[in-house]
Structure formats: structure tokens, C-alpha cells
Write a structure and sequence with these properties.
5% of the residues lie in helices and 36% in strands. It is mainly beta and 148 residues long.
């Protein structure tokens, strides 16, 4: 759908799936991974006459994904097993579209448990963009059918 601009009307309901984890989190907020082109390459030489020149880098990287979620404390061992396990991560957007990338669960940081509050944690997922064989795999976006 090149050239067609669509937007989500609401971020509800965005979910993530750690395909190798066997753990379900109940998402409260999802911040998908960003993309970062890195610092510019300085192309200035002694032959420049009035300005410093720059060029963009050829490669980009993904920034960490953060999720605030409730969790079941009885699956703590499964969460522990998912830490640093490189696997496909699937983000499903409200319109049914998906963003799939290889990454790993870097952090599981539980909030304080308190009376009257559901157990929640902040989950950090780091994109690796390499599969289990070490092959570079760019993120894959599949467009959804609606506007969410």
C-alpha cells in the first residue's frame, strides 16, 4: 500500500508474543522497538571551503522494546528461562498487522507487590536482527486489514 497513509485510531489492543518462551504476559502498555540510523559519517576534508559535510550511515539498528505487563508469579521459572534466549518476537497491532523481529528478553523487572494492585513488571526486549543460526534477518512488517 505504498503511498497510502493510514493511522491507528487507538493503540488498544497491541500484544507481543515471545515465540520460544512459553510465557504469556498481559500487556498494559507496549512501546515497539524504534529504528536508529546512528550518528552521521563526517565527510569533511581539507578541500571543503565553507561547511562541514556529512553522510548517513548505511546500517540501522533497533532500539529496545519496553512493555508494561501483568504477570503470573507462578511462571517465574519460565520467565527466567526466556532471559537472553534469542527468538522471534511478534508485535500484533490493533488492525491485525504485525511486526516480527529476532530478539531476546533482556530484562524482567517486577514492580513492588502491594495490596489492591495487580502484579506488574516492565519487560525489555532487545532486537538482535539475527536468527538462531546467526543469519541477519531484517524486521518484517505485515500490514493489517483495518485502521484499528
Amino acid at each position: 500500500m505504498a503511498g497510502i497513509v493510514r493511522k491507528l485510531g487507538d493503540g488498544f489492543s497491541t500484544t507481543i508474543t515471545l515465540t520460544g518462551a512459553g510465557v504469556t504476559f498481559w500487556e498494559k502498555t507496549v512501546q515497539p522497538p524504534g529504528l536508529d540510523g546512528g550518528e552521521p559519517v563526517d565527510t569533511t576534508t581539507m578541500r571543503n571551503t565553507s561547511v562541514r559535510t556529512k553522510a548517513p550511515r548505511r546500517l540501522y539498528e533497533g532500539s529496545a522494546m519496553t512493555v508494561k505487563a501483568s504477570y503470573d508469579p507462578t511462571v517465574y521459572n519460565s520467565i527466567k528461562a526466556a532471559i537472553n534466549a534469542n527468538q522471534e518476537i511478534v508485535t500484533t497491532f490493533p488492525d491485525g498487522g504485525t511486526l516480527t523481529f529476532w530478539g531476546y528478553l533482556q530484562k524482567f523487572a517486577p514492580d513492588a507487590l502491594e495490596e489492591g494492585k495487580q502484579p506488574e513488571a516492565t519487560i525489555t526486549v532487545v532486537p538482535t536482527f539475527t536468527n538462531a543460526s546467526g543469519v541477519e534477518i531484517a524486521p518484517v512488517v505485515v500490514e493489517g486489514s483495518g485502521t484499528g
